Amino acid sequence: MNSGNGQSTLPPDAPTTGADTIGNELTSTLASGEKGTIRSLIDSAMQNNPYFAAGGGLMLLGTGLALAKSGMVKASRLAYKQMIVDLEIQSRDKSYSWFLSWMSKHPQRISKHLSVRTSYIQHDNGSVSTKFSLVPGPGNHWIRYKGAFIRIKRERSAKMVDISNGTPFETVTLTTLYRDRHLFQDILNEAKDIALKTTAGKTVIYTSFGPEWRKFGQPKAKRLLPSVVLDKGIKEDIIEDVHDFMKNGKWYSDRGIPYRRGYLLYGPPGSGKTSFIQALAGELDYNICILNLSENNLTDDRLNHLMNNMPERSILLLEDIDAAFNKREQTGEQGFHSAVTFSGLLNALDGVTSSEETITFMTTNHPEKLDKAIMRPGRIDYKVFIGNATSYQIEKMFLKFYPGEVNNCKKFVEAVESLGSSVSTAQLQGLFVMNKDDPESAIKMVHTMKTNEEFVV
């Protein structure tokens, strides 16, 4: 009903507000002592209040539902926090690759997203061995472990990159019930044990690849020290010096001396320099990082980075150091064409940013070509000549291949000494391998090792 001024008026007996209507109903109910329900009040309000009919009631109901939904979301989040637990493993963590390998072999696994991991090995004879293994790729996976269900989510970032190797940053998140959280530790321990078993009793060889160290081929069986025969006392002296260095870290620290040790093994080819380093690594339970100074795109910065980021418990090996620099100039020998400078090499060995707690072995066939700057203590602390086979070595190697053949051993030593030229331990080993279990034939073939080449110290 409209008044003369165009404003709407309500009948005298009509309620003025929704609150009045509800209040009157509540008053009437309480006064009469009748028991009503919340539903009857709401129905009464909706039927008698014109504001509900005009949409106000729907608005109130919508607001109520929104609040109820928000409460349910908060309650579910709270329940999730209380009942669910997550474990995140980042790709920069060592356990990341361990876990992926473990998961790829887990029998109770549901995966619809897979990635391929290729193992490529080129053998010395030119043949190639290739092995493909399928590992869980980015996406969601489910496993059942010790009766518990665990969701695994592998994510790859499109924006973040691991600066050490240039690969996309990744994370793996494990989710399970809070009561089963102890299983995370069990999984990580299993993954670690499996990974370590593959290298147990073996020596891992690393080579540089870009800014990082990568495993070269499969881990090699540890070479035993008795298998390498050096001249009397040489092997024992080096081992004693290495052990003395390893147990005196505090002594170096207390005196402000950089805790690193450099060794130079020099001598003719085939005298056992590299073989001894491999055997020493096995004795110490260390791995070997081989750094090729002639590698393409190797710069001073990269050299420094690699030497400061070696895998733990590793020996750094710089082979044929003379092939890289001759009197501070790049030699060009053996295709040397990297961007490493002589000063960059010196700084990496003994500069402000050089690594600590490192054992470095260098080998050379021509020590006379090395600059005095690289020979100084702090860069090379221990130098030893490992030459061609002496009578002592010839005897020890013969009896190692032919145990108990004492008489033939004397004949063999005399035959070698009568050649008039020295022979290397590599030549001796080759002769013994050619005449397995046949010492007489080995004696007859001594003349095949005669050479006119001599090594000049």
TrEMBL record:
Domain annotation AAA+ ATPase: ranges: 259-390
Membrane topology, from the record: Single-pass membrane protein
Name of the protein this chain belongs to: Mitochondrial chaperone BCS1
SMART domains: AAA, BCS1_N
A GO BP annotation: mitochondrial respiratory chain complex III assembly
Pfam family for this entry, one: AAA
GO annotation, cellular component aspect: mitochondrial inner membrane
Signal peptide (residue range): none
Keywords (A to Z) from UniProt: ATP-binding, Hydrolase, Membrane, Mitochondrion, Mitochondrion inner membrane, Nucleotide-binding, Transmembrane, Transmembrane helix
Entry's family note: Belongs to the AAA ATPase family. BCS1 subfamily.
Reactions catalysed: ATP + H2O = ADP + phosphate + H(+)
